[in-house]
Design a protein that fits this description.
Helices cover 28% and strands 28% of the residues. The chain is an alpha+beta fold. It has 2 domains: 152 residues, 2-Layer Sandwich (Ribosomal Protein S5, domain 2); 107 residues, Alpha-Beta Plaits (2-Layer Sandwich), CATH 3.30.70.890. A hairpin with a 5-residue loop joins β2 and β3. The chain is globular.
Amino acid sequence: MIFFPPAKINLGLKVLFKRPDGYHELDTCMVPFPLHDVLEILPAKEFSFHQTGLTFPGAETDNLCIRAYRLLEKDHAIPPVYMHLRKIIPMGAGLGGGSSDAAWVLIGLNTLFDLGLSIKQLEDYASQLGSDCPFFIANTSQIAGGRGEVLQPVEINLCGFYLKIVNPGLHVGTAEAYAGVHFSSVEPSINTIVQGPIETWKESIQNDFERSVFERYPEISEIKEQLYSEGALFALMSGSGSTVYGIFRDAPEITFGNHPDYLEKICQFPTV
């Protein structure tokens, strides 16, 4: 079976305080969008994992797809599989690609082997793999609280709007981003703000990681300014960076094509 794990953007990201367990309390809205990895899962005589496209540095034990398989294998009599991941979503980019891949391994195994796991059960498994992972199970726009795993659906109408993402090829570590963050106030909540017209978001929605990340990497700030100069209704850095996106009413143009290290994609939110 073949699956297409999507990327996500954050419509605002507020870091409220550091919790006693060492995690940070967040308030954010996450929205999936049509930039996908490709994940193939097939029954096999022995387990194997193969990745093409962008490479993942690190040990096998760090690979979230493999960890997702091992997690379900502990509780369910699933046979060995062959997994092939075609990696397209850049890593360390604030787009949740690794989390999405892991979540879709859970979804794929549940589908392939008829495990009968509910969305809630899959989200519980996903929360053991990473804070963003549960979001990708339902794969709809959601408000995320807690460390990112406390989810509630939200209706946001972006149908027909264009999304332009620009990744400058920089890897911004999560710990690095948190090191310079300034905590936000609880009110107004991201949920309240995103209910308003998109034209009001520029003045109301923030990403608390931008301040420190922009100081270290001014080229990321310049991308955001460029997107606004091109007519974006709203632009923001996603997650802890380094990807910046702009939302446009009309189709934008490719403008960063002369930067060989940049990834630039334009897509349209589904109209249905």
